[in-house]
Write a structure and sequence with these properties.
By secondary structure, this protein is α+β, with helices and mostly antiparallel strands. The protein has ten helices and ten strands. The structure holds flavin-adenine dinucleotide (FAD).
Amino acid sequence: MTASATKPVERQLPTDEARELLALTRDLADNELRPQASEEEAAAEFPREAFRTLGRSGLLGLPYDEQYGGGAQPYEVYLQVIEELAAARLTVGLGLSVHTLSCHALATFGSEAQREKWLPDMIGGEQLGAYCLSEPQSGSDAAGLKTRALREGDEYVVNGTKAWITHGGVADFYSTMVRTSDDGPRGISVLLVPADTPGVSGAAPERKMGMKGSPTAQVLFDDAHVPAERLIGQEGQGFGIAMAALDSGRLGIAACAVGVAQAALDYAVGYAKEREQFGRAIADFQGLSFLLADMATAVEAGRALYLAAARRRDAGLSFSKEAAMAKLFCTDAAMRVTTDAVQVLGGYGYTQDHPVERYMREAKVLQIVEGTNQIQRLVIGRTLTR
Ligand SMILES: Cc1cc2nc3c(=O)[nH]c(=O)nc-3n(C[C@H](O)[C@H](O)[C@H](O)COP(=O)(O)OP(=O)(O)OC[C@H]3O[C@@H](n4cnc5c(N)ncnc54)[C@H](O)[C@@H]3O)c2cc1C
């Protein structure tokens, strides 16, 4: 068995254009991502070229306006593209989600002049973005960030350390949350920092449990001079901008989780049909088919939940609580489904000869990024009781 032995998910899509986009994505995933995913992940190879291919195929700016080179697609379509990519290789699916997140501040809160100047290159494929919120001392308590931006004339001088940054050291721009005053969350602002700014550098990548092909690194700011025209929104608006981006970003993480879970399920089903014990395929044992049934149900429930939240977003309704629910449910489901997939393969599942142990390691990080699942429960709980 190979990791490419999957049959396409039958999707409900709103338009012919969306169907074509998903077919194109599936083609890219099958031919350019899935075949080498296990090998490149083991070697911690960052697939930079894959992001250029996504850009050239029009898949790097799907939710953004056509006027800036985006695809003007609803979130329900964009997220299913992410799901397909993540099923083939999480590093790419999550990388697309993070790239979209890093464009969100400019696309949503930037001035018209700023958008016209920078957005086309950011979503056209040649540039890759990173979203810099976390710091060594402030993760869940994101408003505790200390990276300081001091206004000097028509520049900001930035000093501090961002931590855990996806694409840290390989990105072309950093959407960076900085402290412009000591007024808690109201003292935070957003700067769009070109990665080649003198004084900006990436540290050595973290040595992670999984998703090793996706570099995660500290980004260091050492007297980096950033033009004041790169302030997005007003000074002090940054925390709200960062949280708004995360509402959408969490839907991307939910879609990634469903993709990884679907890949694990497909692999487990294929294996269970081939592997024989006691003279019959293990899939014929009810004890095992019930496990597969629970896995499949979790995948479908996760997909339905993230799509429901996406459709609220597409309809202009509030979706913050629903995005947190989708992130929480889908990533917990992915952890369970991938762990069960290892169980279906027995001892073979515990080896690197099959991709399910990689899926299990990948699922874990999705319960942590863009707000841990404890923080999602805080967000959901607050909306119920405030
Ligand atoms: C692979 C990877 C990629 C990442 N990419 C990015 C990125 O691109 N950009 C970025 O800005 N950040 C990124 N992060 C950082 C990520 O968002 C943080 O790791 C996460 O928010 C948690 O912060 P922390 O690691 O400091 O944990 P802490 O905040 O120290 O939390 C430790 C534990 O305490 C729990 N906890 C904390 N506060 C509460 C509370 N109030 N109630 C209940 N439990 C609580 C947490 O849930 C967790 O279990 C990435 C992280 C990883 C691992």
